[in-house]
Amino acid sequence: MVFRARRGTLTALSAALALAAAVFLFGGCSGSGKAVVGGGAVEKPQSPEGAAAEEGDPPAPAPVGVPAFDPGCETVIKTGNTGRREVALTIDDGWNRDDRILDLLQSYGIRCTVFVVGGRGVAEANPGWVARMDRMGFEVCTHTYDHYKLTDHPYDYVVEDIRKGQEVIAAVTGKTYPYMRPSGGSYNDTVIRACRDCSCYLVLWSNSLGDTDAGTTAERGASAVLSNLKNGDIILCHFGGHHTYETLKRVIPEALARGFRFVTLTELLAP
Ligand SMILES: [Zn+2]
Predict the structure, then answer these.
(1) How far is the CA of 121 from the centre of ligand 1 (A)?
(2) Each residue's pLDDT tens digit, 140-189
């Protein structure tokens, strides 16, 4: 009897998860199209207490799936769904890698979307770093291979730069997310066309730590983000930014205290 009752509960739970996944994966023009990798998201609570970083990697949170690019949707993305109290933390580059940032996010169970440079001593040279973020449930996306200003280059170069960056990541993670962030956020019609032809959305941001400014401080960065923090924000910061770790240490507990959840870009874009 007990066994039967438990089975019934599990079956109902599975059905609910499957329904939730179906609604999420096939709804609307938001960058969350058909999944090629799927599963229901298993959330670890994001609490300010957070607990100290666990030894090693956490049990891998189930990914919500790699969405497909939908050419019918807007290619340039600056913000997510504003109907939920959610924000997405996005981290760029990777020349300098402050591992305290990953440890901090891990301690809160926060998954985010990262845009890593493929070449120039970054992703290609550090597959273990890419693999760790993938195991943490992060969406590891391309920030191009060379990290040059794309508006200075012709179409063919831009396509090659995006594809090569995607290939470096996929060689480690087996995943190609339909998201690309251009160096410096620079883009024009050629870059948009190249993105579309690479089945990528061009992802910008709506909020920033300002951690590329050598004159910033953790207090100033946190205040800049928190004073503007709103539903659907895509927050920009950098692995090797100025005071990025210290700034995030201030931003995360305060944002959680205000009721925000940190989610991946795919989750943020879901209808
Ligand atoms: Zn960059």
Answers:
(1) 14
(2) 999 999 999 999 999 999 999 999 999 999 999 999 999 999 999 999 99
Distance 165 CA to ligand 1 centre (A): 13
Pull the structure tokens for residue 112: 């985010």
Using alpha carbons, list the distances in angstroms from residue 181 to 9, 16, 115: 43, 34, 6
Q: How far is CA 111 from the centre of its chain?
A: 7
Side-chain-side CA neighbours of residue 79 (13 Å): 12
Chain centre distance of CA 173 = 14
Which domains are delineated in the chain?
A: 12-43 (no CATH), 64-269 (3.20.20.370)
pTM, full prediction? 0.82
* Distance (Å) from CA 92 to ligand 1 centroid: 6
For residue 102, how far is its CA from the centre of ligand 1 (angstroms)? 18
For 225, the token pair is 């983000």
* Per-position DSSP letters for 141-176, written without gaps between them: EES-SS---GGGS-HHHHHHHHHHHHHHHHHHHS--
CA of 235 to the centre of ligand 1 (A): 14
Distance (Å, whole) CA 157 – CA 34: 29
List Cβ neighbours of 19 (8 Å cut-off, separation of 6 or more): none
94: three-class secondary structure by DSSP: coil
